[in-house]
Automatic annotation (TrEMBL):
GO terms for molecular function: hydrolase activity. The keyword NADP does not apply. CDD domains: nuc_hydro_IU_UC_XIUA. It comes from Roseobacter sinensis. It holds the Pfam family IU_nuc_hydro. It comes from the Bacteria. Keywords: Glycosidase, Hydrolase. This is Nucleoside hydrolase. Residues 4-301 form the Inosine/uridine-preferring nucleoside hydrolase domain.
Length: 311
């Protein structure tokens, strides 16, 4: 199995991404989960990650708390989408499993320093603060990262928190800039693809009909999460952003995109956090990311439902 560290700000869709990874031990070995402030403050994200591990029946997973604010800006959160706790929807018990004492950034540095070359995949599902801080403090860890597969950014879909920026990149553009310039191979799941992964009513019903606690909780999470998109945009269901990352690790053939250059806007307040994606190759800037555009959505939901049934 591929060794991964999930860096996350749960978030209902982060929760589903984590559940999919934990349900797939043949393909994925979760070394640890590092939490960051994003959708909600760090106290909630580091608690929610443990709630999810316990829901999955995996209280042995190591969960670390990391940065509680972006590198150079005030924290922007998304309670308007995810609710007060970040995990509104299902009623789940408070976690019993401990939060690790090590800071997430120290954990990332120690783990990557001890790893073989190109042997660990990082899966950021929130703002990139923890990852950028680790890469800045210990640049040599770039050598042991196999790939960074992240959810963030947009090209044709442009923005969901400002007219031109996607939430994860907008919250910490400086951190995103560091990551995109790190030289590590990057796979990006932008809004362009996640907006094609909609939890329609039949897909939600499939989760609910699994008949296990995980299926019920995921159906309740997506019920909550989708009221925002339904009410605001009249969309067919909630986009399941973050699980695209963990699904890619299991079935990359469900996704397609282009190897392109991506740079991050960090100066202009108007377009702060924009992923300037050279989709048409109009510059000579070298490609630094596989920018995904398409998904086999039925294949994706089939995989998800089949795996959640195992928990
Ligand atoms: C991203 O922002 C968060 O609200 C979601 O969890 C996802 O990671 C989508 O823009
Ligand atoms: Ca997230």
């Amino acid at each position: 199995p591929r060794k991964i560290i999930i860096d996350t700000d749960p978030g209902q869709d982060d929760a589903v991404a984590i559940l999919l990874a934990l349900a797939s031990p043949e393909e994925i070995e979760v070394l640890g989960i590092t939490c960051v402030a994003g959708n909600v403050p760090l106290a909630f994200t580091s608690k929610n990650a443990r709630i999810i591990c316990e829901l999955a029946g995996k209280p042995e997973v190591k969960v670390y708390a990391g940065c509680d604010r972006p590198l150079g800006r005030d924290l922007v959160t998304a309670e308007h989408v995810h609710g007060e706790t970040g995990l509104n929807g299902p009623v789940l018990p408070d976690p019993v499993m401990p939060l690790q004492e090590t800071h997430a950034v120290d954990y990332l540095i120690e783990t990557l320093r001890a790893a073989a070359p190109k042997s660990v995949t990082l899966c950021p599902l929130g703002p990139l603060t923890n990852i950028a801080t680790a890469l800045t403090r210990a640049p040599e860890i770039a050598e042991t990262v196999q790939e960074i597969v992240l959810m963030g950014g947009a090209y044709f879909e442009v923005g969901n928190i400002t007219p031109t920026a996607e939430f994860n990149i907008y919250v910490d553009p400086q951190a995103a800039d560091i990551v995109f310039k790190s030289g590590v191979p990057i796979v990006v799941m932008p809004l362009d693809v996640t907006h094609k992964a909609l939890v329609t009513a039949p897909r939600n019903a499939a989760f609910r009909n699994l008949g296990n606690a995980v299926g019920t909780a995921v159906a309740e999470m997506t019920d909550f999460f989708e009221r925002f998109d339904r009410e605001k945009y009249g969309s067919d269901g909630a986009p399941l952003h973050d699980p695209c990352v963990t699904a890619y690790l299991i079935r990359p053939e469900l996704f397609s995109g282009r190897q392109i250059n991506v740079e991050i806007e960090t100066q202009s307040e108007l377009t702060m956090g924009m992923t300037v994606a050279d989709w048409w190759g109009v510059t000579d800037r070298p490609p630094n990311a596989l920018f995904i555009q398409d998904i086999d959505a039925d294949g994706f939901f089939g995989l998800l439902t089949e795996r959640l049934a195992r928990l």
